[in-house]
Write a structure and sequence with these properties.
This protein has 216 residues and is α/β, with parallel strands linked by helices. The protein has a single domain, classed as Glycerol-3-phosphate (1)-acyltransferase (3-Layer(aba) Sandwich). Helices cover 40% and strands 16% of the residues. Helix 2 packs across helix 3. The longest helix has 27 residues. The mean pLDDT is 90.
Length: 216
């Protein structure tokens, strides 16, 4: 067993339990996430709460990428690195981050990317940046899109419900591993995330039925 697997097993009992206590969470479609092999998880982003919630909602360990400023915060930086998170310098080309992303899926891990590049302050998903598509096209691994809804409203004390919906794995074997291919793949990922998010909005309006299938 990998050291990362052991760390995540401990984290599910500790941090996962805290998430479960503080966040009324419902997860749809987790069976769609491949249990083995390299994969890119393409995620939308509203809140600092999103990484632990997605981690709780994922059926396998996730190696997230986070801005380098977060890694410099005392206690938080060492903690997230323990769970396999690596840093990226936003707003510039970061060759080391690209190398680590590709190395992650090459090693058979799940790479978690918040594809909009930053939190969406308006409370709706934004544009998907090309990073997830670049990794998937070069390394020939699938992308699993996922959406989160509710963390944009959650605050300590109100404990608003939060839901996650996983999409079907997307493969892009017919696209070239260049700028044109990245744009086309990213547009498809964006459409899927937005569709999953709209499904969650509707699910919340209906009281979050326990048994519901995200759009295929």
């Amino acid at each position: 067993m990998k050291r990362l697997d052991v760390t995540w097993a401990v984290g599910r009992v500790t941090i996962g339990a805290a998430v479960e206590l503080l966040v009324p969470l419902r997860v749809y479609g987790s069976e769609r996430v491949p249990r083995k092999g390299g994969v890119v998880l393409a995620l939308n982003h509203f809140s600092w709460l999103d990484p632990p919630v997605f981690g709780k909602a994922s059926p396998r360990p996730v190696r997230f990428m986070a801005k380098i400023e977060l890694h410099r915060v005392k206690l938080i930086g060492p903690l997230i690195r323990t769970f396999g998170t690596f840093s990226v310098r936003r707003g510039e080309t970061d060759r080391e981050a690209v190398r680590l992303m590709r190395q992650c899926v090459q090693g058979g891990d799940a790479l978690g990317l918040f594809v909009e590049g930053t939190r969406q302050r308006e409370g709706v998903p934004g544009e998907a940046m090309p990073g997830a598509a670049m990794v998937a096209l070069h390394e020939h691994v699938p992308i699993v899109p996922a959406a989160i809804h509710g963390t944009q409203f959650w605050k300590p004390g109100n404990f608003e419900p939060v839901s996650v919906a996983w999409g079907r794995p997307l493969t892009f074997a017919g696209l070239p591993a260049n700028a044109k291919g990245y744009r086309e793949a990213s547009a498809e990922v964006q459409r899927e995330i937005h569709g999953l998010w709209r499904f969650l909005v509707d699910a919340h309006a209906l009281g979050r039925p326990r048994h519901a299938s995200p759009p295929a």
